[in-house]
Amino acid sequence: MTEFILIGLSDHPNAQPVFFGFLLVAYLISVLGNGFIIMLSIADPQLHTPMYFFLCTLSSIDLILTNNAVPEILANCFIHRPTISFSRCLAQMYIGLLLIVTECILLAIMAYDRFAAICQPLHYMQIMSWKFCICLLVLALSLSSLTTLINVLLQPTDFCGRNIMDHFGCELELFLKLSCSDTHTSELFMHVSSLIILIPPFGFIVVTYVRIGLAVLRMRSTKGRKKAFSTCSSHLAVVSIFYGTIMVMYLKPQEKSVSDKGKIMSLMYGVLTPTLNPLIYSLRNRDVKGAFWKLIGRKMSE
Predict the structure, then answer these.
(1) pLDDT at position 292 over 80
(2) 83 strand-pairing partners
(3) Which residue of 29, 79, 106, 255 is surrounded by the most CB atoms within 10 Å?
(4) Strand order in 164-165's β-sheet?
(5) 65 exposed, middle or buried (CB, 10 Å; 0-12, 13-18, 19+)?
(6) Residue 51 class from Cβ within 10 Å (0-12 exposed, 13-18 middle, 19+ buried)?
(7) Which residues contact 53 (CB under 8 A, 6 or more apart)?
(8) Among 153, 275, 111, CA closest to 145
(9) Rounded mean pLDDT of 87-105?
(10) What are the pLDDT digits (tens) for 44-85?
């Protein structure tokens, strides 16, 4: 096996120009938006806080995730039967898995950061010290690396000529279906790890925001309530979009073949989420907007 044929939307040639236009716009917004947040988080000293450290990390993950597959999908839009090499398929699949697992855990860490800021404001910098923040990030990367490594070790080695993958890019579930060796252990680990990776972090986020909500309701100051709401609403929006699409994708009953709806759902968390994240955080966040105008003013005065 040297390459796979990717079907994508080849059966719907009329839809491909529309799909290409949508994907190109989403890709440009994602690259520029996430790059913009990374630049501001580094350039503005006022954004050198744990919250923006994690936001900068999230934008970096989204930037790499977008560039992992989208440029190739765009290039393949007008090719009738695009192909991807076996080694590139593995790289795309495992890099994507590593980044998505890291983002799952990172969103839970960001929820804890908001909990510490709102429920323990006087001790916030003691709780979320830089040493602790880096340890949390290393933990997230270690867990995602371990999950990816186990998938690599369980990877099937025997393929019997079937090389047509009915998708835009390489997906682990489809990759396992093309193998003619026993993939029972790999599939079992994939489903069990999906539950472990998705349910506990999502449950932690829900419990954390229930406690934040109770704390906000006890606030006497209307201004304090508004500030807490504006701080948390951006993160809640990102969590809802990311976990909503990924849970529908990975926790649904396994299908024999991939529908066009399933392909679009996979693009939702792989393309749409990295596109919407910078828009949500930049449009709803005063600090980010303030840092942007400050940077613009500084450049104009020069």
Answers:
(1) no
(2) 5
(3) 106
(4) 83-85, 3-6, 164-165
(5) buried
(6) buried
(7) 41, 130, 133
(8) 153
(9) 92
(10) 888 888 988 999 999 999 999 999 988 888 888 877 778 888
